[in-house]
Structures are given as C-alpha cells and as structure tokens.
Write a structure and sequence with these properties.
By secondary structure, the protein is of the alpha/beta class. The chain has a single domain, classed as 3-Layer(aba) Sandwich (Cobalt-precorrin-4 Transmethylase, domain 1), CATH 3.40.1010. Helix content is 22%, strand content 20%. It has a 4-stranded parallel beta sheet, sandwiched between helices.
C-alpha cells in the first residue's frame, strides 16, 4: 500500500487541519501534502499565509460560507472531491482548526 505522501500515488485525498491559525504551527506532513496538491478544497477560516505552501499550478476551491451564497452541503463537497480524485488529482481537503 502506498504511503499517503508517496509522490507516485495518484488520485487520492489528503485531509489537513490548518491548526489554530499560525502557519508556523502546521505539521511537516501538512506542508508536504499542500506542496503535492493538484487541488485544494478549503474552508474560509484558513489563514491566507497557509496558501503559500500550495504550488502555483494547484487549483484552489473555497467552500466557505459567504454573505451572498450558502455553504455547500457536505454531500456536494464530497462529490466535488471525488470528481477531482477520479481524474487522478491529489486533492487536499484543508480544514480550518485542528
């Protein structure tokens, strides 16, 4: 079985908690996962400085609640992630908090 951080494994999801806000508190595994990402599906509470670890080619998809639109239901977020994984993408689901 391939490691979650095996660069040769494709089409997978990595769940990452962004921690309490300070990007200096990200784990080494979290930073490595972000660096490998093709797609990052993120919450709105993630500190913008965390995005510095995402490669320029990676697609960022916000699923944050905004005043002019409702938060995507969890089923829709799951379907979005699955659709990208099926293309062979490494998808990071970046959650605010731990």
């Amino acid at each position: 079985m391939a490691s979650l951080l095996d660069p040769d494994a494709r089409g997978r999801v990595i769940l990452v908690g962004a921690g309490p806000g300070d990007p200096g508190l990200l784990t080494l595994n979290a930073v490595e996962a972000l660096r490998q990402a093709d797609v990052v599906v993120h919450d709105g509470l993630v500190d913008d400085r965390v995005f510095a670890h995402i490669p320029p080619h990676a697609q960022r998809i916000s699923v944050a609640k905004k005043r002019d639109r409702h938060t995507l239901p969890q089923d829709a977020i799951n379907a979005l992630i699955v659709a990208h994984v099926k293309t062979g993408a490494i998808v990071v689901r970046l959650k605010g908090g731990d």
